[in-house]
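Q: What structure does this chain adopt?
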Amino acid sequence: MKNMENKKKKRRRKLKIKKFTIAVFLLDVLAVVVLFFVYGPVSYFRELWITTAMTTMNHHYLAYTFYSPKLVAEVMSRNYIVPITEEINLDDIVIGNTEEKDSYSSIYEEQIFTRDEGNDIYKIIRINESGYKGYLTVIYDPANVELAVPKQLGRVGASVAKMCRDNNGLVGINGGGFEDIDGWGNGSTPYGAIIKDGELIWQHAGGNGGLIGFNKDHKMYLTTESPEVAISKGMVDAVEFGPFLIVNGKVAQIHGDGGWGIAPRTVIAQRKDGIVLFLVIEGRLPGYSLGASMRDVIQLLSRYKAYNAANLDGGASTTMAVNGKLYNRPSAGGEYGGRAVSNAWIVVDNTDQTE
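A:
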């Protein structure tokens, strides 16, 4: 009996040693792979890591953990966006007939104009590209697009879903940025300016890019002018963020990956016929969707003939709500219905109020 027990103990000991050896081997292989990507001859992964980390508000340390400040600065100097400086031409936007057509020039046009049964207000198109997934909301009448803010603006934010519920929103996406100290910001302190119903209701340091909004004629208005000047020219609703990606049909010039890496994205756009597009790209979800670069976003929106487009707050803030409930898969806060943000662009039914 004792011999049998001793043999079993030896077998168990050998099995444990074997498992430990295999585990150490796998860890060594993993370390070699990581070191190859981080310090190897292929610069793509190094630059992607740095630009993605530096785009975040609170995770720059992920770049400096592996690389020197000098190298980080060099990489960022090679990856940047040249902004479009020309003034937006609102006369180019002619809000007209957006009914279904007999024939289409592309599958993307067919996706845009073919309505969901019983819904003439909006349509959601599933985006499934190599490396990322998301949703494109098509809003047929720009008069149905409004800006929503939390009830306690300046004190506490709210999820996009809640702002939709509070304002009869059918669909909503997050808007501008806000103070996000240590990644725990609750949307209480928005960055930049917020214009609501033609009035400047908020202004705070930290705005990035320019004013993104709509004028009294429901045309998307992108400008770097002051809020006061924008309001005098007819701006009704706006948030401050950026960069502007497409202006007057011209796309921003991107060097490298634009310096924004790959991440979840939220973008708002308008076509020449007035149709508004809400784009939400999911990301930071390995095995499902990693995220998109600015170049990816521009290419995607160009297929759907976006004429003006601007980047909104992304990362963990990227959320989309439909019928008062979280619709996409955010990189964080999904269990709470999406994180609290400082404002949202929503779709409402203003059919009876339009002329």
